[in-house]
Amino acid sequence: MIGEPAGLWQRVDPAQLLLLRELAEHGSVTAVARATTRTPSAVSQQLKVLQRRVGVPLVERAGRGVRLTDAGRALAGIATGVATALAVAEADWEGYRGGAGGTVRLAVFHSAGELLVPGLLDRLAAAPQITLETHDEDVSQDDFAALTADYDVVVAHRSDDVVPPARPQVEVRLLLREPLDVALPLDHPLARRDRVSPQDVIGEQWIAPPAEFPIDRVLTAIAARAGAPVRVVRRTTHLPLMEKLVSHGHGVALLPRHTTRERTAGRLALVPLADLRAGRIVEALMRPDKAARRAVRTVVDALVAEAAAYPG
User: Fold this and answer.
1) Quick count: other Cβ atoms within 10 Å of Cβ 228?
2) SS (H, E, C) the chain
3) CA–CA gap between residue 278 and residue 273 (Å, rounded)
4) Is 158 left (phi over 0), alpha (psi -120 to 50) or beta?
5) Which residues form the HTH lysR-type domain (predicted)?
6) Are 279 and 180 in contact (CB under 8 A)?
7) What is the pLDDT of residues 101-143, one digit of tens each?
8) Pairing state between β 205-208 and 231-235
């Protein structure tokens, strides 16, 4: 029994083991091939070699594709620890050599990008050995964690009045809490108020993002507090469009305070909500092995420092 684990690891190629983990996260050989810049046939061949080496079935047919067996899922889970250990070793070696370079791929939703990326780039000027790639990704709040399979860091948001979604094997760094205010046309009767209640605004025509986005979940809370449904007349994920529609008198909206205030001074009124905690949590999500990289840690530390400028 004592010699058995050593025998296993003598037979297993870590690169093949990591492919199994990618299959667990991406769900198909084609997606793994795309994520790892291989051909599907090359991925399938490596998985077959791994299966022969461990001596038990790791994948099985499922319709036109494949799925992991129980043994495959167990080994894929072990692969996360292996990947993290390798990343820690690489980070220690980088530290010994005095460097923390390389490319870091950052996925960020649009309004957080406007708020954080310019200052982040200013801060990273002190680390010219790091190349930062930025990618726009705006999905429903429960889908951000899956993006960590494709990016080093994913800036995500969620409403602060719900329990965080299950995010196994994902590291989380809090960046900021951004309040959500009611955006009103400047000539609206409520525009000069210090605060408005859900009952004050429940009868308005609302411009909102799609369901399951953090702002929409706060609208649901407004409806529950006011005891009446919200009338949504238009939906869009594009906050500048929401701002322009409000400023032209085509409805009201819930908008993030810091992002909107920098863009819309003199064009619309932002009024805080009374009797309801309305905001969104902005976080950085990473796989543990990617979080171990020194370059990734440098980028995330700079994100945290930049976000500290915005009070919640």
Assistant:
1) 13
2) CCCHHHHHHHHCCHHHHHHHHHHHHHCCHHHHHHHHCCCHHHHHHHHHHHHHHHCCCCEEEECCEEEECHHHHHHHHHHHHHHHHHHHHHHHHHHHHCCCCEEEEEEECHHHHHHHHHHHHHHHCCCCCEEEEEEECCCCHHHCHHHHHCCCEEEEEEECCCCCCCCCCCEEEEEEEEEEEEEECCCCCCCCCCCECHHHHCCCEEEECCCCCHHHHHHHHHHHHHCCCCEEEEECCCHHHHHHHHHCCCCEEEEEHHHHHHHHCCCCEEECECCCCCEEEEEEEECHHHHCCHHHHHHHHHHHHHHCCCCC
3) 7
4) beta
5) 12-69
6) yes
7) 789 999 999 999 999 999 999 999 999 999 999 999 988 888 8
8) parallel
Distance CA(122)–CA(99), nearest Å, equals: 20
Confirm if 299 and 132 have CB atoms less than 8 A apart: yes
* Contacts with 37 (C-beta within 8 Å, 6 or more apart), sequence order: none
For the chain, which domains are there?
4-95 (1.10.10.10), 99-177+281-307 (3.40.190.10), 179-275 (3.40.190.10)
One-letter amino acid at 248 equals: H
Residues 310 and 258: their CA atoms lie apart, in Å, by 7
The answer to whether residue 194 scores a pLDDT higher than 50 is yes
Centre a 10 Å sphere on the Cβ of residue 214 and count the other Cβ atoms it contains.
25
